[in-house]
């Protein structure tokens, strides 16, 4: 079965290689990690482990991407402090995870890419690391990797493990379609691991149902909460000091900003500056490959700006926020969550709702935004940013191009929003479902009312009162077992019973 698995994954890689090659050429950053992933070449410091006195005394932590790196960071620091004579190496799968690990885990002895799950690359990686223990964050199960670790007598512990209902369903379907042939294979794979430290009882129950041994599964809670760093990061402390020194208030944080939204944010900030000339905008692009483009847009706008990467916080002079009108460009990874406490208003951009919510989970931004709103700070959401303000993202029209850990969103308001609402066209020959029909289907299974917010519409929620604003032709409110109600611009919607201060728009 292992041979069949390896052949299938190899065939899949060959078939998909044109796609990955084109993507790598466009992005210009993925091809360079292939030697590490095949185990042909390793970064400086890793290949020398076998010849050093640390051979056989290495802890290997694997964190697939950004969210996992952030989750395991405090634990990794504690391991290094508690076991200073053991080497600690970190692997990631994604390039953004690799970048963040290199920025935030400078205490690690080596940082590299996780090997492809074939016996050769895995054995070469195990030989290079000389690992005595492997720690995998969450539940990324690789059959050949686990088997080779067992053969090498290297224990593997999964920490912060989770198994969503959707992933569990996928496993069950695979077992069903195989006629039970995969049952024994899956059980063997799971029991090649030494321990599964799961986040919750549901995660543990699903893993046990797939064949993991009872004695190998332990419920330990969420690593992100148990070992959470102080929200007063080095950057947030520096910013707080600079804001006070230069008297820059109010502070507007535009986080998770999509490409091409920068100009819109700058125009809105100009409106704020007319009333508050000493206001400060902190602009945080959603992806690292947007950083330079955002800087170019700021330069073209004629504004002066300060880039995070150029800031020195070690006492060296020359680092400051500058004069009023300056924008602070947060072109770094993993620091946005720690500065939300400084915000006087929060903006969350649009784009694909699934990708946005996954990013909020991966970057641990949910609690920071919730706390800011609970402290009375305004929240402004655009399109997808309006949906994530709701209890869940179930009323989005977007394709699920990625899978967030949960459909549960920020929950700043108690109702759902369906942005860019389009009324049914009686003359249309389109045979698909209308937006209204999809909302009514939602209400067959859910209690939360839904606001069909037409293009240009804005819901302002303040002190328990809701007003429909903007330039749209009103909105349409749907409640379970009731007829939809048309609401004109300027109308009061207090019956939706929202409490926090929120402004969300289509």
Question: What do you see in this structure?
Answer:
The longest helix has 26 residues, at 2-27. Strands 10-11-9-8-12-13-20-16-17 form a nine-stranded mixed sheet, with helices on both faces. Strands 3-2-1-4-5-6-7 form a seven-stranded parallel sheet, with helices on both faces. 37% of the residues lie in helices and 18% in strands. The protein is globular, with a radius of gyration of 25 Å. Helix 3 packs parallel to helix 4 and helix 5 packs across helix 6. The mean pLDDT is 86. Strand 1, helix 3 and strand 2 form a beta-alpha-beta unit. By secondary structure, the protein is an alpha/beta fold. It is built from 18 helices and 20 strands.
Q: Span between N and C termini?
A: 51 Å
Which spans have pLDDT < 50 for at least 5 consecutive residues?
none
What average pLDDT do the residues reach? 86
Describe the main β-sheet briefly: 9 strands, mixed
| CA radius of gyration | 25 Å
Rough shape?
A: globular
Reading side by side through the largest sheet, how are the strands ordered? 10-11-9-8-12-13-20-16-17
Number of strands: 20
Structural class: alpha/beta
Approximate strand percentage:
15-25%
Helix content: 25-40%
- What is the helix tally? 18
Structure summary:
With 506 residues, this protein is an alpha/beta fold.
Tag the structure with descriptive keywords:
506 residues, alpha/beta, nine-stranded mixed sheet, seven-stranded parallel sheet, 18 helices
